[in-house]
Amino acid sequence: MNSVHICNPENINELITALNQATPNSRILAGGTDIIISLHERRINPDLIIDLSGIKELNYIKQENEFMIIGALTTFTEIKENHLVLKYFPCLAEAAAQVGSVQIRNRATIGGNIANASPAGDSLPVLSMLNAKISVINPLGFIKEYSIDEILLAPRKTNLSYNEAIVSIKIPIPQPSFRSAFVKLGTRTAVTIAMINMALGINYDEQRKKITDASLVLGAISPKALRAPEIEKIFIDRTPDYNLLTEFSHRLSRLIEKTAPVEFEMEYKKDAVKGVAADLLHKLLPEVF
């Protein structure tokens, strides 16, 4: 292995300087929970590692007007405990609470989880469902926003250039009628990699007892987080009942059968997803399910 130069920027201006030094063989390190393993296993041999951990201004959660903004270096432990996240986006808190072990959650960052582009990444279906925008900085200091779908291209592959870095995530604050939930099905180990994860958000009119809108995104069934607009339609102007649950379960099973390749364990998942559907609706509408 060749020697690796480590660059430790402490602010955005120093990050811009570091990005100008990057080559296609360089890597950006956030929490380091994935890249350190790759280094130890010699799957990567970078010439430069830009370590973002010293940029304290990228670690925050705040509300600005109609948006909640999360700095790219915010850890999943910080996300799952934050009062704004718990107030507006319980689905994101639920996803953050299920990322790896306690030790991993204390180090893993939301920016790193996006950039890693794992099909099973726990935050990705949630951020997609919430219509989050990802802010990316380039070597000129310009910042551009992308949707999750624009960022993710394939497993472990994004549209980010080698000399770009994620700096923040912006999520629109929902209406008071909005409810959201996240469910993850994985193996029974302390550090669980999702076999299926799913985020569902609905607007629920409590007076009329009807769902007025829905947004559904699935993870770990395809190369990247998958939105399901045809299934979303079954919720619109619907009074929640067990007929809805049955239809939801069957539609999910058919979607997985149609979408998931064999290597994504389609046969198992098309049955297991029915339990995930029941868990989601129970979390969203405990007064009904």
What are the SSEs and their pairings?
Blueprint: E1 5-7, H1 12-21, E2 27-29, H2 35-40, E3 48-51, E4 61-64, E5 67-71, H3 76-81, H4 83-88, H5 90-97, H6 102-107, H7 110-116, H8 123-129, E6 133-137, E7 143-147, H9 148-151, E8 152-154, E9 157-158, E10 165-172, E11 178-186, E12 194-205, E13 210-219, E14 226-227, H10 229-232, H11 242-259, H12 266-284
Parallel strand pairs: 1-3, 2-3
Antiparallel strand pairs: 4-5, 5-10, 6-7, 6-10, 8-9, 11-12, 12-13, 13-14
Helix pairs in contact: 11-12
Notable characteristics:
289 residues; alpha+beta; Uridine Diphospho-n-acetylenolpyruvylglucosamine Reductase, domain 2; Enolase-like, domain 1; 3 domains; 4-stranded antiparallel beta sheet; 35% helix; 26% strand
| Coarse shape | globular
Total helices: the number is 12
Secondary-structure content class: alpha+beta
**Rg, Cα atoms, Å:** 19 Å
* CATH class categorisation of the largest domain: Alpha Beta
- N-to-C series of helices and strands: EHEHEEEHHHHHHEEHEEEEEEEHHH
The CATH architecture term of the largest domain is: 2-Layer Sandwich
**CATH topology of the largest domain, anyone?**
Uridine Diphospho-n-acetylenolpyruvylglucosamine Reductase, domain 3
Number of distinct beta strands? 14
Helix content: 25-40%
Query: Strand order across the biggest sheet?
Result: 4-5-10-6-7
Q: Main β-sheet, in a few words? A: 5 strands, antiparallel
Low-confidence stretches: none
In the residues, how many domains can be counted? 3
Share in β-strands: 25-35%
